[in-house]
């Protein structure tokens, strides 16, 4: 399903995407193909949901505030509680994890006051307590993720 | 350091570059900003670290990386920076953060590991523990199960904040 060109585009352009007038032409020149081929390959990867987008990864907490939040919710109520939480625009990721604390989500807001009011609303609406785990230090230098695509 | 036009630009560009010959010109057209200024601002934001990386954002799960574990450790506070720096150098690690302890939660160092299956993730974790000298510290492994929400774009004007908490 993935062509050699697809694999190169997936692995080799997760960082340092060309910031030039014709970035897809620059990629094409590097790979010895045409700009049209690069664009059509990216369109295919996009259509098949292998990529979410081409864009910037922005470090957390440089603009606005955010926190990771964990909740311990009875299994039979988890879906309903998760749906209530996902409905908030301030909620970014929302995952079930295998643990007593089984619901994990990220909240983002313009300031701490707004963040705290959303947390209060969530606790009231769901009747479960939250545990706030805001970021203190980010050690991760994001260079992209090396994919092993040999089985495709 | 970052002005209103930078924010407006980030808001647009984080939704993804349009797949066309001159994507920065098209983004600029929406913002009434010349193509050259779009490129200049993005280059500067990247140099300043306000863009961590610029490029293809892949969907791990769709590409066969089905297992994802958040691993949390309780390490002495004076070691957290050194250990975090070490952990984040491993290829299979996709995030590495310090977070505060809580009364029911003694852990202060977090990392995320993506792998094709659980067994692979656990193997990689073992490698991490050995190489970083983490064997003596309490840890928990939280594999992800259901994804209820995963927003592609991270920064929104109303929210004015960025992902991953």
Describe this structure in words.
The complex is a heterodimer of chains A (152) and B (165). Chain A is an alpha+beta fold and 152 residues long. Helix content of chain A is 36%, strand content 22%. Chain A has helices spanning 4-12, 23-31, 35-47, 78-86, 112-126; strands spanning 51-57, 65-71, 91-97, 103-109, 131-133, 137-138. In chain A, strand 3 (91-97) and strand 4 form a beta hairpin. Chain A is elongated. In chain A, 37% of the residues are buried. The model of chain A has no long low-confidence stretch (mean pLDDT 93). With 165 residues, chain B is an alpha+beta fold. A four-stranded antiparallel sheet of chain B has the order 3-4-2-5. Chains A and B meet through helix 2, helix 3, strand 1, strand 2 and helix 4 of A and helix 1, helix 2, helix 3, strand 1 and helix 4 of B. Strand 1 (51-57) of chain A pairs antiparallel with strand 1 of chain B, so a sheet runs across the interface.
Mean pLDDT of chain A: 93
Distance between the termini of chain A: 7 Å
Strand arrangement in the largest pleated sheet of chain B = 3-4-2-5
Number of helices of chain B: 5
Q: Helix and strand succession of chain B?
A: HHHEEHEEHE
The CATH C-level class name of the largest domain in chain A: Alpha Beta
Characterize the main sheet of chain A: 4 strands, antiparallel
Total beta strands of chain A: 6
Keyphrases for this structure?
heterodimer; A: 152 residues; alpha+beta; Alpha-Beta Plaits; 2 domains; 4-stranded antiparallel sheet; 5 helices; elongated; B: 165 residues; 5 strands; 33% helix
Give a quick rundown of the structure.
The complex is a heterodimer of chains A (152) and B (165). Chain A is an alpha+beta fold and 152 residues long.
Topology:
The complex is a heterodimer of chains A (152) and B (165).
Chain A lengths: L3 H9 L10 H9 L3 H13 L3 E7 L7 E7 L6 H9 L4 E7 L5 E7 L2 H15 L4 E3 L3 E2 L14
Antiparallel strand pairs in A: 2-4, 2-5, 3-4
Chain B lengths: L3 H10 L9 H9 L3 H13 L5 E6 L8 E7 L6 H8 L5 E6 L10 E7 L2 H15 L6 E12 L15
Antiparallel strand pairs in B: 2-4, 2-5, 3-4
